[in-house]
Amino acid sequence: xxxxxxxxxxxxxxxxxxxxxxxxxxxxxxxxxxxxxxxxxxxxxxxxxxxxxxxxxxxxxxxxxxxxxxxxxxxxxxxxxxxxxxxxxxxxxxxxxxxxxxxxxxxxxxxxxxxxxxxxxxxxxxxxxxxxxxxxxxxxxxxxxxxxxxxxxxxxxxxxxxxxxxxxxxxxxxxxxxx
Length: 179
Known about the structure:
Layout: H1 5-22, H2 24-32, H3 44-47, H4 56-72, H5 76-101, H6 108-115, H7 117-123, H8 128-149, H9 155-168, H10 170-177
Helix pairs in contact: 1-2, 1-4, 5-8, 8-9, 9-10
């Protein structure tokens, strides 16, 4: 298997991971700096190896996998386990926020949400959807907690999740503003 987004994400993450041991300053700028910014002269050969530099949404996933490389040494299955765990946290946050605002809360609905094949499948991969599910859940829970109890500590996760959700899937973030 040679193609597909997942393999490109992993290839780009591996290139950035190897850069950490050669040029840590360049690594830091590429992983923690803004994507699609002007390319410094000394870093341009490295950036041409990274296919998603101009796409902030995809570059966010490459950054996740680059950081995961330090824990997994490139084992794609470890990345998958962490992605599934992060997605599960998002699903649980969605359930908690829905339970808080729903008058007709039914305990079967969370079970169906967790076991729904589409959510389980897409949320368990190492592509963008696991992060989308997590950020959507965090945004929903933060909005509910902020409006329910006027607990201002939830403002930071609300703004942060919206910001990253906007980078990841701008249409989803804009839809959530209407909720």
